[in-house]
Design a protein that fits this description.
By secondary structure, the protein is of the alpha/beta class. The chain is built from 17 helices and 21 strands. It has 2 domains: 130 residues, Chitobiase, domain 2, CATH 3.30.379.10; 341 residues, Glycosidases (TIM Barrel, Alpha-Beta Barrel). The strands form 4 sheets. A 9-stranded mixed β-sheet has the order 2-1-3-11-8-9-7-5-6, covered by helices on one side. It has an 8-stranded parallel beta barrel with strand order 12-13-16-17-18-19-20-21, surrounded by 7 helices. Strands 4-10 form a two-stranded antiparallel sheet. Helix 3 runs parallel beside helix 4 and helix 5 packs parallel to helix 7. It is globular and about 75 Å long. The relative contact order is 0.11. Bound molecules: ligand NGO.
């Protein structure tokens, strides 16, 4: 960068057609109880007794440790497909081993888990491929799919089983959330480190669960991007879409057009120094994202949102005159020159270099708000550019305006409309979807993380209205757009535009607590969707964010624990 937990009865939760029912569900943390009271309470309460185990176990614990109930298995975000609670909790101790299959991918997940657990527990937690008991990460054939997993917890250990390393990684995120929030701290904390007994079986509803970060309006360093990646991973997001170019800045080095970065990247909204990623820095972001099982989706926005490029190379302008760099926040005023051949040399070079740097399947070509390009020119431009993306081995993604042109076979359209978007525009998107264009849903009045929560939110924009936490969570991607079959929906993405955001604390205040909701919409079965239970799970995340140093908005809609 140039700057720049005695046995307890089993409680079962079943998914029904419309919502989860549970034989029991704790609504507040349960205090540990003395073992002799166990059977009475068992009769009285049915099966709520993860707690009892905690009481019994803590009797043998070091005196400094608080008596603490294990976190119920169904407190996780995103909500798992099925949860069967009960049995003896597992307790991580100084003698716990992390047992992994002897493959680099599984070892990597094991190392990642150890790096989270060691600082706060103070335990060695050695990785081993031998023995049994402890924390076990194993690959096996089963009904897990590419990203699903099964977590079994009992007296002897916790076993996460998956078919692919990504499934193990997501299982590790679940395990993390089942441990006390203090596990996230970087200094040794008192235990006990209990994982409630039972079984979780889980797999995602959608394959594409994204988050977008706009590094063009304000530049964010590699370290800031890594921090956001870690936050995304906690909620099983698997795509990081980077908005790498816009009117205010070009953020990726392109060898064949060096001024794009050195000049086009030299400022940002408000006039700050901007910045850009060298190719090695971009590769480092891709590598780090991959280590968290996220695929990077680079976006080069065109033909509009291109002032930084147009300012860098006069010849890209229809009149041959380079405009000045732009540091405001207006949209829709710039366009590549659709009728000049050099435009396509430029596009080919940029797509070739970005594709070569990107192991992921996708390359996003923007296509939004091309208000300075006529519809005919827009369609002609997209007809020429989409095959270039294919030639360099990538699948096109475009903002949903692409459905107004001729989306290439296999192209994806990212819908960013609102309730008030015209019926005609929604119908255009639905037609494309019925013709095979799959959709990523990013409705701006739901999951644009840059929208203000309320009129009093200091950061953010309001063009799509105010988006409080409930509004952001309470919609169904599978039935959101009229006449779009659920099978046309590839997934959900939460964009974070940065016209008003310039620090990690800014990003976090806007993303938390809405991001976990978007992640749940992407991962969890529709049958688990329920605001009243969700808001309780969401509130329970706050101590974890505190432990991680994540800034968040204390929405009055959420029953936060006392600060
Ligand atoms: C729009 C616009 C972006 C803005 C964003 C702000 C899309 C796809 N184009 O979303 O340029 O930054 O709103 O919310």
């Amino acid at each position: 960068m140039r700057r720049h937990h005695s046995t307890t009865p089993r409680t079962t939760r079943t998914i029904r057609a419309t919502r989860i029912t549970r034989t029991t569900r704790p609504t507040r943390p349960i205090r540990p109880i003395r073992p002799f009271r166990l059977s009475r309470l068992t009769r009285a309460l049915g099966a709520l007794l993860l707690v009892a185990a905690t009481g019994a176990l803590t009797m043998g614990a070091a005196p400094a440790e608080p008596r603490r109930a294990a976190i119920p298995l169904d407190q996780v975000i995103p909500a798992p497909v099925s949860v069967e609670s009960g049995g003896t909790p597992y307790r991580i101790t100084s003698g716990t081993h992390i047992r992994v299959d002897d493959t680099p991918e599984v070892r990597q997940v094991g190392t990642y888990l150890a790096e989270i657990l060691r600082p706060s527990t103070g335990y060695r937690l050695p990785l081993t491929t031998q023995g049994d008991g402890g924390i076990r990460l194993r690959l096996a054939k089963g009904p897990y799919g590419a990203e699903g997993y099964r977590l079994d917890s009992g007296a002897k250990g916790v076993t996460i089983t998956a078919q692919e390393p990504a499934g193990l990684f997501h299982g590790v995120q679940t395990l993390r959330q089942l441990l006390p929030a203090a596990v996230e701290k970087k200094s040794v904390q008192p235990g006990p480190w209990l994982v409630a007994g039972g079984t979780i079986q889980d797999r995602p509803r959608y394959a594409y669960r994204g988050a977008m970060l706009d590094v063009a309006r304000h530049f964010f360093t590699v370290e800031q991007v890594k921090r956001y990646i870690d936050q995304l991973a906690l909620y099983k997001i698997n795509k990081l879409h980077l908005h790498l170019s816009d009117d205010q800045g070009w953020r990726i080095a392109i060898d064949s057009w060096p001024r794009l970065a050195t000049y086009g990247g030299s400022t940002q909204v408000g006039g700050g120094p901007g910045g850009y990623y060298t190719k090695d820095e971009y590769r480092e972001i891709v590598r780090y994202a991959a280590s968290r099982h996220l695929e990077v989706v680079p976006e080069i926005d065109m033909p509009g949102h291109t002032n930084a490029a147009l300012a860098s190379y006069a010849e890209l302008n229809c009149d041959g005159v380079a405009p000045p760099l732009y540091t405001g926040t207006k949209v829709g005023f710039s366009s590549l020159c659709v009728n000049k051949e050099i435009t396509y040399d430029f596009v080919d070079d940029v797509i070739r270099e970005v594709a070569a740097l990107t192991p992921g399947r996708y390359l996003h070509i923007g296509g939004d708000e091309a208000h300075s390009t006529s519809p005919e020119d827009y369609a002609a431009f997209m007809d020429r550019v989409q095959p270039v993306v294919a030639r360099y081995g990538k699948t096109v993604i475009g903002w949903h305006q692409l459905t107004g042109a001729n989306p290439a076979k296999g192209a994806l359209a990212q819908y960013w409309g609102l309730d008030s978007t015209s019926e005609a525009e929604k119908a255009q998107v639905a037609r494309a979807a019925r013709n095979g264009t799959r959709l990523i849903l990013s409705p701006a009045d739901r999951v644009y993380l840059d929208m203000k929560y309320t009129k009093d939110t200091p950061l953010g924009l309001a063009w799509a209205g105010h988006v409080e936490v409930q509004r952001s969570y309470d919609w169904n991607p599978g039935s959101y757009l009229p006449d779009v079959p659920e099978s046309a929906v590839l997934g959900v993405e939460a964009p974070l535009w940065t016209e008003t955001l310039s620090t990690s604390a800014h990003l976090e205040t806007m993303a938390f607590p809405r991001l976990p909701g978007a992640a749940e919409l992407g991962w969890s079965p529709a049958a688990t969707h329920d605001w009243d239970t969700y808001k309780v799970r969401l509130a329970a995340q706050a101590p974890r964010w505190d432990a991680l140093g994540i800034a968040y908005y204390r929405s009055p809609q959420v029953p936060w624990p006392a600060a």
